[in-house]
Amino acid sequence: MDKIQKRQYNKQYYSENRKKELQKRREYYQNHKKEALERQREWRKQNPERKKQIDKRYREKHKKECVERNRKYFLLHKDKFREYQKRYNKTEKAKKRFKKYRKKHRKEMIKRTKKWRESERGKQKLKEYYKRPDVIEKIKKNSKTQHEKGKKRRIEYIMMLGSKCSKCGYDKCFSALDFHHIDKTEKESTVECRKKDFIKKIKSGKVILLCSNCHREEHWEN
Ligand SMILES: [Zn+2]
């Protein structure tokens, strides 16, 4: 018998005695568990592509079981996972991924955090969070930079609008110049105003520059 003939013979034999063969294999596996496992591990190492395919197929077929098993495993090793996640979140890769995710799901995330903040658990956690000394320091620092940013942005807008009162031509001090919304209903607080929206308003002429005197006069008259 040459090689091809032998293979054909084997194939036929297997297809005819499939159940018997399977039983045989199962028995063999039960008796030689360690060796079999080792061999399997070795094979998986040597054929990474096939391994991926097989794992994927298995996961698709046994989705529920996999999820359940993962959940059980997670609950058993909670602390370990938390620690691992903390370490992972500090890596560059994680930061990049998170940034991408945030860009894509911005609206949903805002909604979710709003809901969480309003829940009992969220309220308590936030209370605890704002009492932490490192957080207090962080906020102090941040508010300083935030203030500077706001100032810079204000100057930028004023320059865009010609840096003088559009009624009387006053141009001595930037802090005495206000943004006046021609349409009252479109006014938002300057803090809430996003940069893009505000620049759009400036370009379309919905916002003009007035000195504080002219601004008061304007509102007194209307
Ligand atoms: Zn003026």
Keywords:
single chain, 222 residues, mainly alpha, two-stranded antiparallel sheet, 12 helices, 2 strands, 5% strand, binds zinc ion
Compute the number of strand runs: 2
From N to C, what is the helix and strand string?
Answer: HHHHHHHHHHEHEH
Poorly predicted regions: none
Q: Into which percent range does the helicity of residues fall?
A: over 70%
Strand ordering within the main sheet: 1-2
Radius of gyration: 34 Å
Multimeric organization: single chain
Helix count, DSSP H or I runs of 4 or more residues: 12
Identify every distinct bound molecule in the structure, by name, code or SMILES: zinc ion
Overall body shape: elongated
Major sheet size, sense and barrel closure: 2 strands, antiparallel
Q: What percent strand?
A: under 5%
The averaged pLDDT comes out at 88
N- to C-terminal distance: 107 Å
Structure class:
mainly alpha
Annotate the secondary structure layout:
Elements: H1 3-16, H2 18-31, H3 33-46, H4 48-61, H5 63-76, H6 78-89, H7 92-104, H8 106-118, H9 120-131, H10 133-160, E1 177-181, H11 195-203, E2 207-211, H12 212-221
Antiparallel strand pairs: 1-2
The chain binds zinc ion.
Structure in a nutshell:
Helix content is 75%, strand content 5%. With 222 residues, it is mostly helical.
If you had to describe this structure to a student in words, what would you say it looks like?
- Helix content is 75%, strand content 5%.
- It is mainly α.
- Among the domains are: 105-160; 162-221, no CATH class.
- The longest helix has 28 residues, at 133-160.
- The protein is elongated.
- The relative contact order is 0.04.
- Residues 165, 167-168, 170, 210-211, 213-214 line the site of zinc ion.
